Amino acid sequence: GEEFEAVDYFEKPLSREKLRSILSRLDVPIREAVRWDEPVAKKLELKKRDLSDEELVNLMAKHPDLIQRPIVVAGGKAVLARPAEKLDALLGRRG
Fold it and tell me: By three-state DSSP, how is residue 71 classified?
């Protein structure tokens, strides 16, 4: 019942600045917002590299399939909305 704007970042890629802004609102480290088992992550051997958060953001902006999803932003906060209860908590709903 909530209104929302869905952003398909494959069709309309997020800039590094926009992605950095969204990731900064998450209640988890940037590393948890990376899809480590994606084919591109394996090709880039991300698990073998010691990358800074900034390097990860740059790679996620360049390769959007590395971004965990869905990310939901409401107000000044964001959550990786899996499980769905995280979304309910963000929106102030009671389970």
Answer: strand
